[in-house]
Amino acid sequence: MQSPRAVGKKRGRPPLQPAPIKVAVHNLYSAPAGALPVVKIPKKRGRKPGYKLKSRVLMTPLAISPPRSTPEPDISSIPQDAATIPNSATPQALTVCIYVNKQANLGPYLDRKKVQQLPEHFGPERPAAALQQAVQACIDCALQQKAVFSLVKQGYGSETVSVSASFEGKQHLLSLLVVNSIGYVLRFLKKLCRSLLCDNLFSNQPFQQYNAVSESPEVYEDRRMEA
């Protein structure tokens, strides 16, 4: 007897590729509305009544200074003598004091009585002011101002001081060159005294007074020259 064959099977080798399986695709769009799941979207809750907004504090950025191009110099190591000197410590202006020798040999041009009335010294003053006062004193003490005035050497320059003399019914002016130097003042007065034939009338050092009882001006002058 033969065994019964299986229904639906074919003899032979199976195919290399399986037959595609057909899956029934349901049309979702054609499905009824009740079959789709309902997606709930949460509602945005509003603010409760009476809610107050908090004011936001704006944070302002700190002001950042730009970097300096050059660093500050360190003056801690600078010696004291090289530091800047304040105005109060600046040296004073150059001054000179011109002393008058009232016992000098005054020569033929000056009046001794008038010389005795002069101050002991002129200054301390600026060299130009001291020179002006000394030369003006010579003119004022002259027996004839015209003669002494003609012996004064006039100066020319950007800065001058003036001396005056009165003769022939007029006021005459003469300019003296301004030089800020003690040596120039002493040389000018020395030349003027030589012209007046009057030596040792002015000096920048005090004069020792002679004893009027025992010595005359001539004896005092001779003793001073010998010394």
TrEMBL record:
Q: Which UniProt keywords apply?
A: Nucleus, Repressor
Name of protein: SCML4 protein
UniProt lists the gene as: Scml4
Q: Could you tell me which residue ranges the Polycomb group protein RNA binding region domain spans?
A: 2-60
Q: Where in the cell is it found?
A: Nucleus
Q: Set out the biological process GO terms recorded for this chain's protein.
A: negative regulation of DNA-templated transcription
Upper classification of the organism: Eukaryota, Metazoa, Chordata, Craniata, Vertebrata
Q: Where does this chain mainly localize? A: nucleus
User: Which residue ranges does the record assign to the SLED domain?
Assistant: 95-205
* Source species of the chain: Trogon melanurus
